[in-house]
Write a structure and sequence with these properties.
This protein is α/β, with parallel strands linked by helices. The chain is built from 16 helices and 20 strands. The chain folds into two domains: 261 residues, Aldehyde Dehydrogenase, Chain A, domain 1 (3-Layer(aba) Sandwich), CATH 3.40.605.10; 187 residues, Aldehyde Dehydrogenase, Chain A, domain 2, CATH 3.40.309.10. Bound molecules: NADPH dihydro-nicotinamide-adenine-dinucleotide phosphate.
């Protein structure tokens, strides 16, 4: 990234970045052992796919091929579901909660022990900065396993009615590429704690950490068949969720695929949770702590390259503060470092795939064509790989596509408002309802806003904070059901 350049006539870079240049600080990838090819994880072992098909997974920062990953056929999915059923009937559903919790604790501890390896592999396969995979994703993954390990022997105290809640059976779980390991933990930990067995399909572009997790299950001596991992594309996911012997479907991903899944399970007895897209408003009032709010807005949209379902992709800023706030935001954006995900100083890594990059470019082009003002700091992007600079659009109105559709990239739409009522109206003017943020000095205003905002999660004077004890989920087109906390457990019991 270039430094010392002007942003619309102002000294763009902060004093810090003008004074210091960062030396490269790359994390070593030698801790990770990537095999040239991977089988499917079924019944406790890695097996070849019946059709012999495979696909390549690449490092999105360099386009280097990392490994060949198996593509599970219908037969393979059936094999995995059968193995989960046998493990459920013979072993896992019969085991006491206390015993199940020991396995979950063991997995959690191994996750911690192998955290550096997991973080490096996640950054290589996904493109996210090591600072995030190391400090956010992997610690949270272990925390979710620890948290649900604690519930496994206390289900009757979870407040789900009288008697001990019973597991559902076999859970089919399909996850996206933006938080591969973290989404795996949100799915697998509560399912296992409640006594279910699982078949999980990771996203095509980010299967490697799920396969490393399979090795961790082996290391923890988890009984065969309790966790099965089938890799593949959308067709594998479709086969899995529509399998006749599945009792529960849990999906995180796009609203379009969520809709298809809801249709495919309609009329069956399968229990479903869908965690879909979002278009969150991050609302800044003129009495907010401004510098903290700038940090919160930056974290809200540029964390994980904006590949976050609850990203604060619409900044709603009070008109009286707008100019000052935008100037500060631009200055801060000019200090963001885009580049090598394995460099410990990197703030923004690679876009996960060429398809996603094309979508971000297309929607940004639409934003410009529809008349919004586009701005990005001067930024040297690497020649190879998939990159997009942190970008903001000003003068955005509710009619613009960039204000309505999930871009799923480092692109922020800026909208102004005058009164709290107008902020609420604009924030709620979206088909989604996953999250929102409010920045103000007044506690009473926070409570009032939280009551008015139609979003599953409302953060106050912070953004993108996750905790295993806290339920997460949306309404409207953001899906239904909750993950995390006691609520996340409820989705896996009857
Ligand atoms: P998808 O919703 O297609 O992918 C999520 C998961 O579902 C992946 O494992 C995918 O497999 C699988 N899948 C795809 N089609 C089906 C199907 N018919 N039945 C069952 N499973 C299926 O997201 P994309 O990766 O295609 O991303 C497209 C857009 O979705 C993004 O641009 C973004 O806007 C949004 N998105 C939102 C997410 C969120 O958390 N809200 C997460 C990811 C994407 P495969 O990887 O092989 O396609």
């Amino acid at each position: 990234m270039e430094t010392g350049q002007d942003v619309e006539g102002e000294p763009a870079t902060s004093a810090t970045s003008a004074m210091f240049d960062y030396a490269p600080a790359p994390e070593s990838r030698s801790i990770v052992d990537i095999a040239s090819s991977y089988g499917l994880f079924v019944n406790g072992e890695f097996v070849d796919p019946t059709g012999g098909k495979s696909f390549k997974t690449i490092n999105p920062a360099t386009e280097e091929v990392l490994a060949e990953v198996s593509e599970a056929s219908e037969e393979d999915v059936d094999r995995a579901v059968k193995s989960a059923r046998v493990a459920y009937t013979r072993v896992w559903s019969k085991m006491s909660g206390r015993e199940r919790s020991k396995y979950l604790y063991r997995i959690a501890r191994i996750l911690q022990e192998r955290s550096r390896e997991l973080a490096v592999l996640e950054s290589l396969d996904n493109g996210k900065p090591i600072r995030e995979s190391r400090d956010v994703d992997v610690p949270l993954v272990a925390a979710y396993f620890f948290y649900y390990a604690g519930w496994a022997d206390k289900l009757e105290y979870a407040g789900f009615g009288t008697g001990t809640p019973q597991p559902l059976g076999v859970a089919a779980q399909v996850i996206p590429w933006n938080f591969p390991l973290l989404m795996l933990s949100w799915k697998i930990a509560p399912a296992l704690a409640a006594g279910n067995t699982v078949v999980l399909k990771p996203a095509e572009t980010t299967s490697l950490t799920a396969l490393l997790f399979a090795e961790i299950c082996q290391q923890a001596d988890l009984p065969p068949g309790v966790v099965n991992i089938v890799t593949g594309a959308g067709a594998t996911g479709r086969t899995l969720v529509s399998h006749g012997d599945v009792d529960k479907v849990a999906f995180t991903g796009s609203t379009d695929v969520g809709r298809q899944i809801a249709k495919s399970v309609a009329g069956t007895s399968k229990k479903v949770t869908l965690e879909l897209g979002g278009k969150a408003a991050n609302i800044v009032f003129d009495d907010a702590p401004i510098d903290q709010a700038v940090e919160g807005v930056v974290n809200g949209i540029f964390f994980n390259q904006g590949h976050v379902c609850c990203a604060g992709s619409r900044l709603l800023v009070q008109e009286s503060l707008a100019d000052d706030f935008l100037a500060r935001l631009k200055r801060r954006m000019a200090t963001l470092r885009v580049g090598d995900p394995l460099d410990k100083n990197t703030d923004i890594g690679a876009i996960n795939s060429s398809e996603q990059l094309a979508k971000i470019r297309e929607l940004s082009g639409v934003g410009e064509a529809e008349g919004a003002g586009r701005w990005a700091p001067p930024c040297d992007l690497p020649d190879k790989g998939f990159w997009f600079p942190p970008t903001i659009f000003t003068g955005v109105t509710a009619a613009h596509r960039i204000a309505r559709e999930e871009i799923f990239g480092p692109v922020l739409s800026v909208i102004s408002f005058r009164t709290p009522a107008e902020a609420v109206e604009k924030a709620n003017n979206t088909p989604f309802g996953l999250s929102a943020g409010v920045w103000t000095d007044k506690g009473s205003r926070i409570l009032w806003m939280a009551n008015q905002l139609r979003a599953g999660v409302v953060w106050a004077n912070t953004f993108n904070k996750f905790d295993p004890t806290s339920p997460f989920g949306g309404y409207k087109e953001s899906g239904y059901g909750r993950e995390g906390g006691r609520h996340g457990l409820e989705a896996y019991v009857r």
